[in-house]
Design goal:
Radius of gyration: 17 Å
CATH class: Mainly Beta
Protein name: SMP-30/gluconolactonase/LRE family protein
CATH topology: Neuraminidase
InterPro entries: 6-blade_b-propeller_TolB-like, SGL, SMP-30, SMP-30/CGR1_Lactonase
Cofactor: Zn(2+)
Number of strands: 29
Pfam families: SGL
GO molecular function, one term: metal ion binding
Distance between the termini: 29 Å
Helix content: under 10%
Amino acid sequence: MSFRVVTTGLKFSEGPVALPNGDVLVVEIHRGTLTRVSPDGTHTIVADVGGGPNGAAIGPDGRAYIANCGGMYAFEVAGYTFAGGIPETYQGGSIQAVDLETGEVETLYTECDGLQLRGPNDIVFDAHGGFYFTDHGKSDGISADRGRIFYGKADGSSISLVAADMNQPNGIGLSPDGSRLYVSETYTARVWWWSVTAPGEIVGGQTLAGSGGGNFLYASPHMRYFDSLGVEANGNICVASMVNPGILVLSPEGELVEFVSIDTDADPGITNICWGGPDLKTAYVTAASTGKLLALDWPRPGLKLANQAVEVNA
């Protein structure tokens, strides 16, 4: 599938959010910013959020909500930039909210029931104004946290743990009707799902020893790592693939619909996807290891997310 490079020079780009005026928000993990990318490729800093902003979503109040992992080391392999480890500046993870007009940053959550947020990664809002987010955890190269999924309210009033004992959960998304929650795991290259029974309440249990109690959907037979994910309007789950770079498109039944290979200077770090444009058929993909934002003409529309304003043709 052909693509165009919208911009370059980003510092490990993640968490794209398409805005109705054609701009795209991204987070830059190694710059510690929420950044606005214009259609002409110009990028400007909306807010310096510190730490390591890893995912973003628009909330019901119009602010951008940030899953901040607290920071990671930047390191290079064969000329490509990656992220990992626990830097000396690490003070914990958080969920933040950013006013897009003023750049004001509010920290909503740093813990849940006394347990520190370790590495919040990706975030998605539901139709009730709350949000689910993954906590990928942290690793020092010898030991690693077990991953978790949380549910929080946008006003900062409550946060709850909804799943735990996972293997580095990363991407998170909801089905079009909100009845399913999907999560990708990085190093197992697996996708899991749960039934959503109420806001912040999920049920799995259909798979013996499923990660986080989830139901098994898909495992890659190839060497790749899974990063974040997005959902199409028809319910397909689109998972960003690292090492073997591209986007896997999975059906809700767990079948591989297609693999969209993306070769931009052989960047192995394809990290995320979102959709914008008047018909939601422009896919924006972050190529983090070369610091790019890409745009692709997608064959199917993406799902209109909760709180997403879409510019429509008159």
